[in-house]
Design the sequence.
């Protein structure tokens, strides 16, 4: 933990695809020629990966170990997509070298390194958007049954999924509740349209910003892992758009990892460095929602890592 050698060596290994390329033993020289990298430097990297147990030396050259195979792109564990410096998360994590800047200022380090915020970068680079949507779909895959079973979604005739990303949660909720309709709003809805296609007319996706007016009149506005991406000012603005759009008896459903209720300290720092956000505690979420005219009705444990906070319209507190 005293230096960045190992975290970076693993990331460079994944970025170069070494765990995949070394399924069969190979020497550094031919591998360096194929990758167009320095043979000497590659050999140094491969040596450290042997020390880490990611690779092993065999008579025929370096080979990926069963441990190292967890870093293969086809390992189906989401790791390569998180660590490859060419993907959204792997690239964003490189901003951690400027964690000190974030701690001093409270600002995200991402724009310092890349010149614009994370979401603008996704807009400009379709491969980053595809990687991020893939990461979002993967990270919730195993929890979908709990998300669907953990709350009475059938109470609502229409749910607007605000910043719904690739749409896996909305698709699963609608598939389980045939009378519920859904409308997803996000900056990019290509992946969501694919996920929602089997629901036919019950689901639609609209490309747009949640800082602009949202589709009006729905019974519930879902914010799933959205508010933690934002500082208080922006979180309030999103919540206000929900409050404006919903009828008097509507609900705002905030789902995320909640501080003090299982949120990981590591993820707190990720939210800070990537976005300038954080995992808020219940009282902090109540405060930003209160500023948008919403009051907390109840808190439901949805999955081991995420709680659902149900808000309704109430008295504006400031
Ligand atoms: C952490 S992801 C969560 C996605 C989805 N709710 C889920 O749980 O899979 C946050 C989402 O907010 C979207 N987003 C960011 N800024 C936005 C904006 N101004 N308007 C609409 N969506 C936005 C991103 O595109 C991304 O899909």
Sequence:
């Amino acid at each position: 933990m005293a230096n960045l050698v190992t975290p970076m060596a693993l990331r460079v290994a994944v970025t170069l695809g070494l765990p995949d390329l070394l399924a069969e033993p190979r020497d550094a020289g031919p591998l360096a020629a194929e990758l167009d990298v320095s043979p000497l430097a590659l050999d140094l990297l491969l040596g450290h990966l042997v020390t880490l147990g990611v690779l092993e030396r065999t008579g025929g050259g370096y080979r990926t170990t069963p441990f190292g195979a967890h870093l293969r792109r086809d390992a189906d564990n989401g790791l390569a997509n998180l660590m490859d410096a060419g993907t959204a998360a792997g690239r964003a994590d490189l901003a951690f070298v400027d964690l000190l800047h974030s701690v001093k200022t409270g600002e995200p380090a991402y724009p310092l390194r890349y010149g614009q915020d994370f979401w603008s970068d996704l807009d400009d680079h379709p491969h980053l958007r595809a990687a991020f949507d893939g990461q979002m779909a993967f990270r919730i895959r195993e929890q979908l049954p709990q998300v669907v079973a953990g709350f009475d979604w059938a109470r609502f005739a229409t749910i607007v999924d605000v910043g719904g990303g690739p749409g896996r949660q909305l698709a699963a909720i609608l598939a389980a509740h045939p009378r519920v309709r859904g409308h997803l709003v996000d900056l990019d809805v290509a992946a969501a349209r694919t996920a929602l296609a089997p629901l036919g007319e019950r689901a639609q996706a609209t490309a747009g910003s949640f800082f602009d007016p949202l589709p009006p009149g729905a019974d519930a506005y879902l914010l799933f892992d959205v508010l933690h991406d934002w500082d208080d000012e922006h979180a309030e603005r999103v919540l206000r758009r929900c409050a404006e759009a919903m009828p008097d008896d509507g609900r705002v459903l905030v789902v995320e990892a909640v501080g003090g209720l299982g949120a990981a300290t590591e993820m707190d720092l990720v939210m800070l460095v990537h976005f300038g956000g954080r995992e808020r505690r219940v009282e902090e979420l109540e405060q930003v929602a209160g500023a948008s005219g919403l009051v907390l009705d109840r808190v439901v444990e949805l999955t081991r890592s995420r709680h659902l906070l149900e808000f309704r319209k109430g008295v504006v507190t400031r």
